[in-house]
Design brief:
Blueprint: H1 13-19, E1 23-28, E2 33-36, H2 40-43, H3 62-76, E3 83-87, E4 94-103, E5 106-116
Antiparallel strand pairs: 1-2, 1-5, 3-4, 4-5
Length: about 120
Amino acid sequence: MAVHIHHFDPKWIPQILDKIPMAVTIFDLQGIMLYYNEYSPRVINRKPDLLGKDIRLCHQKPESNARIDGMIEEFKNGRREPISYEARPYGKPLLVTVSPLEVDGRLVGCIHTAIPKPLG
């Protein structure tokens, strides 16, 4: 359950998501991109014309699309733990996590986050 302090306005959430130094993408159970935050294009392939389109279009490798399909299926089959992995879509390592997105107890999509992996 979310905790709200008396000075927090939930209307700030979109602005907060845009300022988090992490790529955040939300897609539905068919893989259609519904949202990405302002930071996302700095880290991964996100452009305004991709909203409303299949997230698989952002992936260059067939195994990446198979991974997306597999994660969606796992979440549809009841998995609720996030899935984390390392990816190298642009030659530099990214730490990626995909989590199920539930609204009112119903699975509606996924939250995809990515951050550059610190080197060293």
